[in-house]
Amino acid sequence: MTVTPAVDPVRPEAVQTAKRKLKGAGEPKAKPKSRKSFAMFLSIVPFLILVFLFSYFPLYGWIYSLFDYRPARGLDGSEFVGLQWFELLVSSPTQLKQIGQVMANTLGMSFLGIATSILPLAFAVFLNEIKAKWFKNIVQTLTTLPNFISWVLVYMIAFSLFSTTGLVNTVLIDSGLITIPMKFLDSDQNVWLTMMAWSIWKGLGWGAIMYLAAIAGIDQSLYESAKVDGAGRFKTMWYITVPQLMPTYFVLLLLSIANLLNNGMEQYYVFQNAFNKEYIQVLDLYVYNVGITGNSLSMATAISMLKSIISVILLLTVNWLAKRVRGTALI
Amino acid sequence: MKFTKVAATALASFLAVGALASCSPGEEEPGGSNSQAGATSSAFPTEWSEEITIDVFDGLANAMGEQPGWFAKIVKDKFNMKLNIIAPNVAGGGDTLYNTRVAAGDLGDLIVTDKGQKLDELVDGGLVMDVADYYPNMANAKNFDAAVQKLNSDFAGTYAFPTSVSSLAPTDPSEGIDPTFGPFVRWDLYKQIGYPEINTLEDLLPVLKQMQDAQPTAENGSKVYGMSLFKDWDGNMMNNAKQPVTFYGYDEMGFVIAKADGSDYQSIIDSDSEYVRTLKFFFEANQLGIMDPESTTQNYDTLFSKMQNGQVLFSFWPWQGQSAYNTIDNMEAGKGFMIAPMKDQKIFSYGAEPAGGKQVLAVGSKAEDPERIAAFIDWLYSPEGTYANNSQTMGAAGPQGLTWELNSEGKPELTEFGMKALVGGGADVPAEYGTGTYKDGASWLNVTLVLPIDTDPNTGEAFSYKTWETFQEATSNPLYEDWSAKMGGEATTMDYLKANDMLMVAPGASYTAPTDSSEIETLRNQVKAVIVSESWKMAFAANEGEFNALLAGLQETAKGLGYDKVLEVDMANAKEQNDLRVASAAGE
Fold first, then answer.
1. What is the ipTM of this complex?
2. Distance from CA of B410 to the nearest CA of A (A)
3. B276-306 pLDDT per residue, tens
4. Region class of B238: left (phi > 0), else alpha (psi between -120 and 50), else beta
5. Distance, in angstroms, between A296 CA and closest chain B CA?
C-alpha cells in the first residue's frame, strides 16, 4: 500500500480508498519512509486547515444554542439557558408539526429537484442535434442567461408577469377570459411545483453545459460505426449519446443527493408571503425567519442543528444501503 | 464578566464627571431656555469647522440615504453635518438590520429606537453613550428635564432623550385637530350617495360599495377600490386589522387589545374579539369586491400613491388619507378625505405623555463627535428645530421666513410659498434654502420630539400650522364647509368628536412594557408569525366556511405554540399600563 493519494475522479471507489488511506496517514502503520511522507503530509496540510476552518470551526457556533444570545450584550453578557431551546422545540405537538412541515417542504422540493435533474440532460442531447450552429448558440445563450439573474430580479419578473395587475392577469381580463384576477403569487396552491418550475427555468441551460461538454468528448467513431450499422438520428441519441452521458449524470446525481438539505433559501425567501408561507418554508428559510426576522438567534441555532443531525442520519442510511447492495460501506 | 467590570469602571468615571459637570455651568442659566434661534446654548460651539457625516439609525424613518433638500441645508449650516439615514423600515425584514448592526457593535452615531427592551440592551451592551457631560448644555432639552430624568431613571447616566414631549396634561389628546385614527372616507363621494347613515363598522361596507360604484375608475383610468391594505407594519398582528379596533377605543398591548378606559381586555384571537371582527370586515369587503386585490403584495408607498390618485376611498388615518388627497385643488373642488362618523364610535386618542413617547434618541457609543450630535439633539427640541423637524403630516410649519412668518398682528401665518408647498400640491424651494421640492427636502428623521400641538412660547400658538386661526380662515373651502355643515357646525374633527363624546383619551402614562423573558419572546415571535399570515389568509378567504376554518386553525396553532403563556404576560402588562394611566390622570 503506497501512500499516494492519487484520486481517479471517475471511479467513486477510488475516492473512498483514498479517503481511507488519508485516515491512516498519521498512524504508525505508514512506516518510516519518513521524509517523503512528511513532505506529502505537508502538502495536504493547507487542505486540512481549510476543512477545519470551514467544516469544524463553525461547529463552535452551536454554543449559541445553549445561551439566550442577545446581540447587544454579546455572548459574555447573555444568559446560559442550557437546553431550554431544544425543550421548546419539542414542547408541544404544534411545534413538532411546524418543524415536520418545514422538513416536508425541504425534502419535497429537493426530491422534485432531483427528479427533474434529467431535464438538463435531455435538453443537452436535443440541443446537440441542432445542425444550424448560429441557432444552437442563440438557444444556448438564452437558456444559460437566467442562471446569472439574481433571484430578486427573477421575482421582479415574476411579479410584473403574475401579480394581480401583472401582464398575464391584465391580458386575461382584457380578453374577457376571467373577471377576477387570478392569484398566482399569493396562493398556497402548488407552491412546490411553481417553485420547481422557476428553478428549472433558471437552471436548465446552465445545467446542460456539463452535458454538452461531455457530449463533445464522446468518441465520434461510435457514431460513425452506428451509422454504418444503419442507426438513425434517434437511435444514435438513445443508444450512444445517452449511455455515454450516464456516468456524468450519476456523479451529478450523487452530488445533488448530498445537497439534499441545502436547497438554498434565496428563491424561497423572495417568493414567500403570508399565503404560501406554510409550503415554501424550507429549513434554511425557516432558520432565517426564526433567527433573523423573528429575533431569536439562539432558537434558530438549535433548529439549524437539526440539519446536521438529519445529514448524519441520511449518511448512515446511504451507507447501510451501500453495504447491503454493493457489499462495501462508504465509511 | 470581564466586560461588565470594564463597563462598571467606565460608568463610575462617567458618573463622577457627570456629577461634577452638572454642578457647574448648567445650573446657572435656567433662564436661557426659550430664547429662540440662539437656543444652541452658549457652551456648545456655534461653529463647527470640520464637516462630518453621521449615520442615523432611525427606526421611524421611511427613506434611506443622505438627507436632501432644505432640511439638510439647515443641518449643514448649523452643525456642518450631513445625515446619512439608515432606515430599517426601508430595508424590510423586521429587526434584521437592527440585529446585524447591533451584533457588529455599531448601530449608528445617532440612534432612534424604542425604549424598554431595546434601549436597556443597548445601554447594557455599551452601544449607546452616556452624554451626561453634554446634558447641562442642552438648554432646550432641559425644558423637558422631568421627562429626560424619568427616561434615564434606570440608568446610571444620561443615555436617552424622550420624544413626543409637551407641556400638556396627560388627559389631553396629544394629537392636533385630528385624532390619530378614524374612519376617513372620500367625502365628495359620500356626499354624492346622499350621506347614508353609518351606525357601526359593518355599515361602512355598503357605503363604500355605493361610493365605489359611483366612481368605478379614477382620473388616471385605474380601477377604484373602497379599501386597500398593506403589510409593511405587521407586528404582533396584522397591522391594518388593528386599526378599526381603535375606532372603539382599543389599542394593542402584545396579543391583547385593551380599552383606553380599562373597561375591557380582549385576546385578539378569540372568536368574538374586535380584531377578529375586523378580519371579518375585511373578508366581507373582499367578498363585496371593494377590497383592492393588490393589498396582499403592495407596500405603504404604493398605497399612498394610489390614494393620491384617488384610487382608494377609505383610510384608517387622517394623516394618510388627507395628506395624500386633500390638496388645495381637490378641496376647492369639494373633494377630499373627511371623517364619516359611525354612530357607536369611541375613537382612541393618545393622551400627552408626560415622560415622552415610545421612541427615544440616543448617541451611539462609537460616534466620532458626540458633542455635535448632542447639540443637534438639543436643537431638535428648540422651537426652530420643532418647526423644521416635525413631520409634515403632523402639521409642522417649516422654517420661519420660508413657509411662515408673523403677520402684522404678531400671529403666525403661512406665506404664499408655505401655502403652495404644504397644502397646494408642492413647490420647489428657493435656492437660498436648498434644492429640490419642499416635500422632498423635509426631515427624513420622522421623529417628533416636541408635540406639534404644544405651544410655541414665541408666538403663543401651537407649532402645528393646522391649528392656527390664520390658517383655518385661509383654507376655508367647499370640502370643509360641507363637512362642517353636516357635522353641526363643528370646525375640526377633534371638536366634533369631543362635542359628541366620541373620543376616548388614554391618559399618557409613558408606560413601557417590561422586557419579555427569552422564552416568552421566542414564543411570541413564533406565534405572531402565525397570527400575521393566518390573518391575511382570513381576510382573503374564498368563503365563510374557509374563514371559519382558518380561524379555528389559527386558534389551534397559536395555542399549540404557547399563545396562552404570552397572553398572560400581555394581559398583566395591559392592566399595569391601565393602573399607570389612572394614576397619571389622577395626578393632575
1. 0.72
2. 51
3. 999 999 999 999 999 998 898 888 888 999 9
4. beta
5. 6
